[in-house]
Write a structure and sequence with these properties.
Two copies of one chain form a homodimer. Helix content of chain A is 39%, strand content 21%. Chain A is an alpha/beta fold. The longest helix of chain A has 15 residues, at 146-160. Chain A is globular. Chains A and B meet through β9 and α7 of A and β9 and α7 of B.
């Protein structure tokens, strides 16, 4: 029916244990799903050659970043190798209110933070076909020591237990199948009546 | 991951105003979606030649039917041209507990009854592209009087207001698109973490 319009965009958060292939899945989704936007993160690290502020990242000083943490302007944030990274709440809210759907990939801890800040976000948990397979993937792509890899596998095992706090689970055995599954989730979430703008009641 | 299993099947209820094309959509879905079963209704009408009890319908006497109404053994029921029709709760529960997903098409009143009896059922509201189009469809397929058709259009207008009690809405402008949209909904619902069997906690 004409007149059936969504209230606002949807935030899709793709997470799961380290090594499961979150970024490959997200990259493919952004290519294939019309109307799906990428969320630009904020960071305190130096811009690399060719990186544009507001496109690749919002670049800021550590002081600016920490001030925004204080004022609750990050949906989540974390420190990695001495630099701070975060998802700016204001940017995400603006995109959503303009009706854009946003997809992002993020570590489990960040996903949990986002769900607390924005319960209407749709959390998708990518699972490996098995822990053996996940370990093999971590080994294949890592230049880390055997010990460091074992540590990441242990962490992944703990993270697997977080699946029950998510909205959907998708197995990433084959990239194509995982992408198609998430496209179904995005398609269905876009058809939810609860996301419709309700007609204003006039008496 | 191995070990991620759904607790039970899902009941998909396809409804919407009279004339919107519920049955065409359901017929196509049952052909195309693996693991989707048809729900067998009960009725007090005489079996027609070739109809098999338990396959086309569960045939029963009016007394048997009314006794089951009394004991709450119908998810919904209604009278149509002097015969009673209903969805047997026991049959549906058995199929779902065996892990089968069920799809059925039903009038809005019946859909509302089912949601009350079984809140975990997934209600999908089929909408026409416009009320003008719905009226045209009712006119095209009906042998009724102009007056009877006007009455059905009025009823459809009231039923359109019920959309906000549903889980999903799908526009049936083009049958192919509507079927694809519902396939996304079925696919996504099958990936919901809340439908997973939780591991039993042992201490």
């Amino acid at each position: 029916m004409h007149g059936l319009k969504r209230e606002r965009g949807i935030l899709f958060v793709i997470s799961g244990p380290s090594g499961v292939g979150k970024n490959s899945v997200l990259t493919q989704l952004l290519k294939e799903v019309p109307g799906l936007c990428y969320s630009v993160s904020a960071t305190t690290r130096q811009a690399r050659k060719g990186e544009v502020d507001g496109v690749n990242y919002f670049f800021m000083t550590r002081e600016q970043f920490l001030e925004k943490v204080e004022t609750g302007d990050f949906l989540e944030h974390e420190e990695y190798v001495g630099n701070l990274y975060g998802t700016p709440r204001g940017y995400v809210e603006k995109e959503l209110s303009e009706g854009c759907d946003i997809a992002m990939d993020i570590e489990c801890r960040g996903a949990a933070q986002i769900k607390r800040m924005m319960p209407e976000a749709v959390l998708i948990f990518l699972t490996p076909p098995s822990m053996e397979e996940l370990k093999a993937r971590l080994l294949a792509r890592s230049t880390d020591s055997q010990e460091a890899i074992e540590k990441r596998v242990k962490k992944a095992e703990v993270e697997m237990g977080e699946i029950y706090t998510y909205d959907y689970y998708v197995m990433n055995d084959d990239l194509r199948t995982a992408v198609e599954d998430i496209k179904k989730i995005i398609g269905a979430e876009r058809l939810k009546v609860s996301r419709l703008k309700r007609p204003s009641v006039t008496k």
